[in-house]
Amino acid sequence: MVFPFSSSEDFRIELTEEHELFRKSIREFVESKVMPRWREIEETNRIPEDILKEAADLGIFGVGIPEEYGGQGGGHLMTALLTEEIARAVPALGVTIGVNHLFAVPILLFGTEEQKRKYVTPIAQGKARGAHANTEPTGGSDVAGIRTTARKVNDHYVINGRKVFISGARDADYLVVSARTNPPREDKRWWGISVFIVEKDMPGLKIGQQFKVLGMRGEQPYEVILEDVKVPAENLVGKEDEGFKVIVSTYDYTRIGIAAQAVGIAQASFEKALNYALQREVFGQPLIQFQMIIDKLANMYMKLEAARLLTYWAATLADKGKREFIVAASLAKAFATEAAEWIARQAIQIHGGYGVDPETGVERYLRDAIITTIYEGTNEIQRLTIVRQLVRQAFGLKF
């Protein structure tokens, strides 16, 4: 036994030639179409439609979604490779793609066959966009604490509430929305939550203010307001009152994508720092010849590769259907995002004054890295998940 896993084979990462060919194809798209336009995206706070169209034409929105629902297949490891390569150029584009997965995953896991074909297929084909509306003004990580309500009336539900920090909401055709259909039970605070598919044109659904958050310019989040929104009963995802499981199970998978975003950010930051250290001369010699710079670069690279390995490992376990992937995903998310923040900070320090000049494109990675430590469960929540899963897997105990 390799505590808390059952075998040392659980630590195997299975990358194939297909994975590498896929990574190279995404790198080519990113280098030619996305990287040259990072400044435009930062300034306009929008991902250009022509980039999104080309991404759709390449099948990027369908990576990780089964072929029977219009996707490209590929699993979680392929999705992580995709996200890493895109985040290396423009992390916000990784968010644009990621929120479609946040919409699709709960339906793929708990939805009906009709829901999968009606809603997931156009998402996978790039013909529609999705979003995931769970976070509320009173809290995000506390999924059981949501206050949006859904009242059953004959053959539909009436939803009222307000969601905040919802990425992709403005352009979404469909949203997954959590709401409380019944009060919590005394011994089960999570009980009474349900999940619904809400279409953008349903009366009463409004997109409110955009939140000007620190980073992720190009895909910053919005407020979603629901006022007497009538949703057909067939749009319920999973069982009524058991939506808490739908939401948290979704995050178990999608937080691997956040780790991959962080790896892409860390990779870009390290590359920029290394190149600058080779080119910049101070006191008559290249910056890279100073021991303090050597130490920084070595530590940056160690954290980068550790973050990458943890992310690929979590994705491999998820693809194998191993229950242990949950703790691995939290390990990867917490470590990779904090590593990305630290690496981006060191990259700025190595660049000196140029590091804080937006024109160089260095400081944006720190802003984006900070965001990754917060969404899809703060890293404090990841640490809680790690210990809970460890105790549950090793000793069969819950706390």
From TrEMBL:
Acyl-CoA oxidase/dehydrogenase middle domain location: 132-229
Keyword Flavoprotein applies: yes
Keyword Amino-acid biosynthesis in record: no
Family, as annotated: Belongs to the acyl-CoA dehydrogenase family.
Residues in Acyl-CoA dehydrogenase/oxidase C-terminal domain copies: 241-390
GO MF entries: acyl-CoA dehydrogenase activity; flavin adenine dinucleotide binding
Gene3D superfamilies: Acyl-CoA dehydrogenase/oxidase, N-terminal domain (1.10.540.10), Butyryl-CoA Dehydrogenase, subunit A, domain 2 (2.40.110.10), Butyryl-CoA Dehydrogenase, subunit A, domain 3 (1.20.140.10)
Residue ranges constituting the Acyl-CoA dehydrogenase/oxidase N-terminal domain according to the UniProt record: 16-127
Record-linked InterPro entries: Acyl-CoA_DH_CS (IPR006089), Acyl-CoA_Oxase/DH_mid-dom (IPR006091), Acyl-CoA_Oxase/DH_mid-dom_sf (IPR046373), AcylCo_DH-like_C (IPR036250), AcylCo_DH/oxidase_C (IPR009075), AcylCoA_DH/ox_N (IPR013786), AcylCoA_DH/ox_N_sf (IPR037069), AcylCoA_DH/oxidase_NM_dom_sf (IPR009100)
Required co-factors: FAD
SUPFAM superfamilies, per database record: Acyl-CoA dehydrogenase C-terminal domain-like (SSF47203), Acyl-CoA dehydrogenase NM domain-like (SSF56645)
Keywords from the UniProt entry: FAD, Flavoprotein, Oxidoreductase
Top-level taxon of origin: Archaea
Descriptive protein name: Acyl-CoA dehydrogenase
